[in-house]
Amino acid sequence: MPQLKMLGVGAPTGQQVYAAAQQLIRSASAAADNYCQMVLGATKKVETLLTEEGTAWIDREGILWVRVSDFPILYVESIQYASPSMSPKEWNVVNPLDSLIFMGQSMIGAPAWLSQRGWPRILAQVTYVNGFANAFMTAASSPGDFSVQVNDVTGFMTGQVVTIYDLGNTESATVSTAYAAPLVKLNGAPTPGIVGFDAPLLYAHTPIDPVAATGTTQPYGIRVSSAPDDLAWAIFLICKSFLQEQGSASLVMGSTAGIRGRTEIRITTDDIPLEAKGLLNNYKSVF
Hints:
The chain is α+β, with helices and mostly antiparallel strands and 287 residues long. 17% of the residues lie in helices and 23% in strands.
């Protein structure tokens, strides 16, 4: 990738270099989300679905089906249904959750044993977590450790294979079968915590916190993610294309703070190169 040239009065601080790179990656990720018409990073959300809208229906066996907007579905925290005409709503909770049926990437079947007679109007409400876990380590770990501390545990689940991205110490790990996904916050708000693995880590991992870094020492983030390689590569290609098209002046920073002449980097779906779009098409919502 072309270097981020930091120009201005005096040498840029490590924090400024890191902040500019993070801003570029966030903007590229947001453009990818917009192109795919959904948030790709793991997110907890609540959706209300209605039979008249075609997002909820009852099949011949009495199973209540819902089609949520985002995928892949990692797990469902709750699903309930009610008559949309009732006020206040008398919600019927579907239990147990392990009885749920998953079809495709975005359809959930709940054995509610409802009657199709009269094609009743149904209002369904689903709380679920979808997307790819993506977090940063917040504390150092040592070889032999069975867990890492991260800034957000949203999307991590038992049996999941994740990658710890740490240059020469990059390694894969499988989330422990004993790991219980905690209740996480809604709509992308981070939930800090610890992710446990079923085997010890092979390498040491030492992040450098942006607040602790001083002078020209650059912060160093260690990412823990379940995102597929092609998705990560698409984000890289978007960043690379932006820097190549905008030139070195695109990330000109002063010696104090911010990117000179602009408050943020804006990357739109029109800025996404064709190769990246080809990769993102695998994750694009069709609904």
